[in-house]
Design a protein that fits this description.
Blueprint lengths: L13 E5 L4 H12 L3 E6 L2 H14 L4 E6 L5 H13 L5 E4 L18 H23 L3 E5 L11 H4 L6 H25 L5 E5 L4 E2 L17 H7 L4 E2 H13 L8 E4 L9 E3 L9 H15 L6
Parallel strand pairs: 1-2, 1-4, 2-3, 4-5, 5-6, 6-9, 7-8
Antiparallel strand pairs: 9-10
Helix pairs in contact: 1-8, 3-4, 4-6, 4-9, 6-9
Amino acid sequence: MWDPAALPPLAGRRVLVTGGNAGLGYFACEQLAGAGADVVMASRSRDRAERAISAIRSVHPDAVVTFQPLDLADLSSVRAAAATIAAGPPLGGLLANAGVVGSPLRRTTADGFELQFGTNHLGHYALIALLLPALSAAATRIVHLGSISHRWARLTPSSLQPSTYRSASAYATSKLAVMSFGFELARRLDLTRSPATSVVAHPGLALGMFTPDRPGVEARREAAGWQRGIMQPVAQGKHEGAWPLVRATIDTDIPNGSYCGPDGWFQLTGRPALVPAEPRARESNAASRLIDLSAHLTGVDLRF
């Protein structure tokens, strides 16, 4: 059984984590760095990243963590980051973790896309597409952050570019897009015999109220005792939610195209394991249309 508290040695392995300064991304960085990986923390804010790096070093004094500027809601930032990353040492893993969760009012990226779809899917699509030659050359494990919310979404023209905005629907659609891209990328990597692999992972229901505090890091959120009591049976902390993400990134026994998540009831909590995704997330025709749309919107083709 995979033990998230006893990771294999990762010395010399370079791993990029987007959105590594807070929440799930922070704990993924902490766990990877604690096992010896060279972690590249990609973030919009240098100040928040530096505070997060300090927090990691307070737990793991010898941690090797560096900052990479990246704003997934701005394609010019994505292009600049991709160029810098590709020019550096090869990546053993790319954990595409960053994302926007909910927005009461419709907001847009720097390029005019709805914020959740534009950040969660299009930003990561462009980053991965730009880096793909380097990722293939390095046999990189690419991990996409899915969500149980994909169960309530569909990839249709009206859902991808809706005439009206609903926050929860926009989030679920963005996550289904992330997952569909991840699974279709795995299929195409196989077809082209690329040594790179693509895996999807999700954290279950990971809440700040069950998350340990880290000074200077946005991770823990206090909650009333009654709230904790209600949620305790079905939720876990963000440090535990990071376990499937980390396993998907470093466990070479997980096959290309897999889906990793908690093994408990409804995949809400538990140990990281291979879990089923909704069949619609693996529908190749819908994923191919999504990739075509993504290439058109971002101006970045997916080339193998």
